[in-house]
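User: Hi! I'm working on a homework problem where we have to compare a predicted structure to a textbook description. Could you give me the structure for the chain below?
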Amino acid sequence: MSAMRTHRSLAVLFAHIAAAAVACGGSTTSTSDPSGVDGGGGGDGAAGGACAFKTLDELSPAAQLDYIVLRNELVRQGNVVGDGGVVDPDAGLTLVSHEVTDVEAFGEPCKTASDPATCKKALADLRVITPPASGSGKDCIDRQFTPAGCQALYVVYTSGDTVRAVRTPDELRAALGPIDTADEAWLMARLAGYAVKCDNAPEAAGIVPSATKDADGYVLEGIQDTGQCGPVVRMKVRVTTGGQVSVLETVNLASPPCAIGRRPDGLACDATAVHVATSAVGDFFSRAALLEDASVHAFIKMAEELSHHGAPRSLARKARRSASEERRHTRVTRRLARKYGARPVAAKVDLRPVRELRAIARENAVEGCVRETYGALLAAYQARAAADPDVRAALAQIAADEARHAELSWEVHAWATARLADDERREIDAAMRAAIAELSRELETEPAPSLARDAGIPSAHDARALMAALRETVWA
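Assistant: Happy to help. Predicted structure tokens:
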């Protein structure tokens, strides 16, 4: 997978693959409904407003606890930049910020403390992450996307003069005793990694968090918080009275379109949280517009980094041209989003220093050679399969541009990997294979009927066919 097979043009190749896939899978010719209302059901509907789901309204802890607070701690970190704006890989990380947010609380802080002022100061000063932080797992993750650094979700309680952090389900079970309220069950599940949210995605319409008591404890249902660039997942979790947490069922309702395309270093995935959509098609194009906007930043950064590392001027020039084309794509997809009742938002991308070549090559391999390459083929498919003539016309132009962007990704891949060591090339090859496998899993979700009809989104069967064609022609 070190180099793409040579073709006259990816645009020509993708046009042939898309035409064959549409002919075999069949495209709909039903009349487009700009309102986005899908008479056939199956996943569409009004998005509804955001809701505030609380989990600390009713607790009955075994010990005398004055106060319990659910806390989110975030350490933002950055690379140490040396002379000329170059990242020093041997200098480690530097602290950007260390933030603590109290998400929810129950009780009165330090109510029975002998010295309330000292207790409250200890509560305010308590931290569980010591920067600079590194490691793996849910509490400390090295992430490409904003914020870079480490994050911890935990519980803090005060009891008399004691101020203590609770980081694991076992510690929480010891503090709460028997799990005998729904709120305690939700809190146990949340600390075990099953955060719930009120999702405004059309696929999740009508699904609200619920807790059902039975002889063994509680069965919790709702939409799991996987992040705005993660799938929409309906979960069912059991929490026993003894505090054991187990998953009964998870159903992947949808994978947001922001999972496909070039996601730049520093992209804030939660930027999509404030966009509003009242249909699956509006939601699709709103998310697509955000990703197109993010791609502008990605290509501007690519041009800067390529120039810094001495790449041929033609590559930086193509990157700047790609940024200009992505601006046009942003305007087009925002217009389509508004047509289908959505209010799109701008992407938020943190500015970061010039990176070492290996990091640039890895991101380009995953985001460009895999996701953007598939995205270009997807646009070619939509330009033929969509029932809405506005969508077909818009995607026809976008498909041609995105094919050139994919070609640029492979040119950058060839130039960069030729300058890396053997172990670094093996690392990038493994990252590409993992990205292909991840993308394949995301495409197993069947699109809502209106998405397949109006936006031309392929069925899971057709998406597998598109992926197979890329494996045989581009990723071979």
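For your comparison, note the following. Residues 26-52, 135-147 have pLDDT under 50 and may be disordered. The CA atoms of residues 89 and 106 lie 44 Å apart. Good luck with the assignment!
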